[in-house]
Amino acid sequence: MRFNTWIAALLLALSIKTYAQTNKASSSASFNTAKPWTYWWWMGSTVTESDITWQLENFAKAGLGGVHIIPIYGVKGLEKQAIPYLSPRWMEVLAHTVREGKRLGLGVDMTTGTGWPFGGPNVSPEFAAKKWQVVNGEIQSALTKQAVKRAAPGGEGLVLDPFSAKAIPHYVQRFDSAFANFKDRPRAMYNDSYEVYGANWTDDFLNEFQQRRGYDLKSQWAAFTDTTTALVKIDYHQTLSELLLENYAKKWTDWSHKQGFITRYQAHGSPGNLLDLYEASDIPETESFGTSRLPIKGLRIDDQYEVDRFGTPNALAMKFASSAAHLASKKWVSSESTTWLANHFKVSLSQIKPQLDELFVSGINHLFYHGTTYTPQSEAFPGWLFYASTNYGVHSHFWKHYPLLNKYVERCQTILQNSQADNDLLVYFPAHDLWATKARASGGIHLLEVHHVDKWLLKLPFGKLSNWLWDNGFSFDFISDEQLQRFASLATKKYKTILVPATTYLPEATLSRLAELSKAGVKVIFMEHLPSLPTGFARQTERAASFQKLLQTWASQPSHFPSLGDLEGILATQKIRQETWAKNGLRYIRKVQNGKVVYFIANQNQLFSEGWITLATSAKRVYMYQPLTDKTMELPVRTEQGKTQVHLSLLSGESCFLKLDSNVGKVLNLSNVPSSPSQTFTLKGNGKLEFIEGKPYLPTPKTVSSLGSWTTLSDSASYFSGTARYSLTFDAPAGIEKVSKVVLDLGDVREVAEVTLNGQKIGTAWSLPFRLELPAGSLKAKQNTLEIEVTNLSANYMRLRDTQQPDWKKFQEINMVDIQYKPFNASKWQAMPSGLLSEVKIEYWEKK
């Protein structure tokens, strides 16, 4: 099957039926999960049926696949129009949303609450989050007094105790009542990232601890509070982790299933084992907050973003969610995507795509944009806005070109959702070694958040090992102690090797399970040294002796204890596949569909542009599918030393799929292998610059002899946000009609460029690198007319708007803040460069 046909078949299958869960209320709906979905904040739940329909229709036209409703704080002056959460009227507008979503092919998810985390008016002190305190020598529970953050009307109240067995059953009674006899149900319930600060206890904790750990915590309270001891601390964290999983994640998921919902769960930020918590939901969900500072040529970052304060996204943190999904054979792995990618009104499509590509290579395949704010149709620009960027709403400066991004995502996720991960390695996550260290978070517990992964992931031997594997082209998933016990597939050929990072503490059950898997044919490699002690304080001396006997199985095999410097060679002897080209900054995920290997590759560095790469999987034919253009081409293939090599051209910032085929076909002429362009022609001459659409008004047309930011042309141009057209007439270089390929290199575009050549629409360049291939015959020898319509950001207009009309900032609670969480004020900004900032070139390849 040709690759374009393959893609079309997948899209058709998804359009017919993409949702095959047990959700009775939604099983017949035609949601398209390959399309991106969006967070949809209902400010004060001040919504109407007509405006809901208007926005959903716009979302559908833009190429979205669904929405996720999150009620939050309201708009000043509209308090009387606010609809209390879960009231009969609120349920009416929810039902209307679900019905309209079905009509338009849009799915609907919702949070089990308002704002975050779980909590609200029915959370009395008995069920509220707690911490331990010592009063007169007695250990007691005390309220943290934390309230729901960004709560909507009707959702205010204390935060729920995540460790209590009674809390979730009590909390969901409110939803049972609201959804009684309710037919039009959302697809999924959602649980946001764990942000229960200071909570480290529950009323029944001492009893739970003794039953699970085999001793009274009070008898070892001095050891628990001593910063130099570890075993009791490990037991304490182990108990918290188990309570969180059993009483919070699983009980919430079980309730959701009984109500006919599936679940999306952001486990990160919690004090539990993330792998077990993610796996407890139907759709594990990670988060991409800030910018990853990827070394892509021309990629901009917001210099006001505070890395020390907020951290950066990290692919290894994302892999916790995808690993849980891979091990449990879950179809979807989702992500809260591009939160605070840059300041308000400053995010470009070219900044968004690299972050989404990073999510894709990390195993994410069901993107949720963060996000879109409900805005009435009558509300003027910039509409209602959520305090945290990025804005994907109807007033966004990239709304006109938004469908291009969405189509790219849909093409990628169509393949990624309908294929299975093809990873050889499992990396054991030693949570107990982490729990043995001093915690930095409030309450003295380890919160495994996705922001500052350096605090708990990167500095550990586990993080260093995983980072090395990632950089050196080895495909892997993470696995927990519990998952090791439960997955029988580990003894099959799916995972060939388990790597145990250098660790001190290891549960006896884990060590025994590793021995069983080793006997079953799975290679187990301990990095650097064997663990020293079993976890758990109870009967430590007795169990340590037994533990040492178990270790003797490996003690006589020193080859099992490699350092990172030795690992590449050892994995080669185990025939673990290595994609050596990953060392050049080509990030990838390898998957299998219908028995055939498929790669998604993103060039997120500047170390590679084109050349022969050696694939770790053999193939006779290789097809490259470009999701950006929806084009497919067969690539030259050769065999070197028994391995398949393919000639790949992928510039910094570009991405593609490779589909491998074992069928022998026509041999391509290797003399036609693409190489660097034969010639480069720089367009010169006097051109015309016209401002054709935008705010606050259209500046005067200009004649330009050289390119640069249009903001320097006049004061009015420095405040202009919209679209301007560059026009230039030029003669093509001699012999242009004889070339095999012609590419228009637009250079530094701020931000999107639509190109017309001699009256023919060529395409739209919206991502790095800003290049468009010109169709054969589109260039003439003389008098070519090139028109480039460039759309910039809305930031420059907001500089003026915040000086003249700052009244749009009318939201309750946090109102509007900037990327540093200071009151938002664009009037002090410098003008953002806009237009074509560098030379425009034509590159062409002469026929051989």
Question: Would you write up a description of this structure?
Answer:
There is one protein chain. The protein is an alpha/beta fold and 848 residues long. It has five domains: 1-88 and 293-418, no CATH class; 112-281, no CATH class; 425-573, Rossmann fold (3-Layer(aba) Sandwich); 580-672, Golgi alpha-mannosidase II (Immunoglobulin-like), CATH 2.60.40; 679-793 and 832-846, Galactose-binding domain-like (Jelly Rolls, Sandwich), CATH 2.60.120.260. The chain contains 21 helices and 39 strands. The chain has an eight-stranded parallel beta barrel, surrounded by five helices. Helix 12 (349-361) packs parallel to helix 13 and helix 17 (508-519) packs parallel to helix 18. The longest helix has 28 residues, at 231-258. It is globular, with a radius of gyration of 28 Å. The two termini are 30 Å apart. InterPro entries: Beta-mannosidase-like_N2 (IPR054593), Class_I_gatase-like (IPR029062), Galactose-bd-like_sf (IPR008979), Ulvan_degrading_GH (IPR053161). Residues 1-20 form the signal peptide. Residues 725-812 form the Beta-mannosidase-like galactose-binding domain.
Question: What are the defining features of this structure?
Answer:
848 residues, alpha/beta, Rossmann fold, eight-stranded parallel barrel, six-stranded antiparallel sheet, 27% helix, signal, hydrolase activity, hydrolyzing O-glycosyl compounds
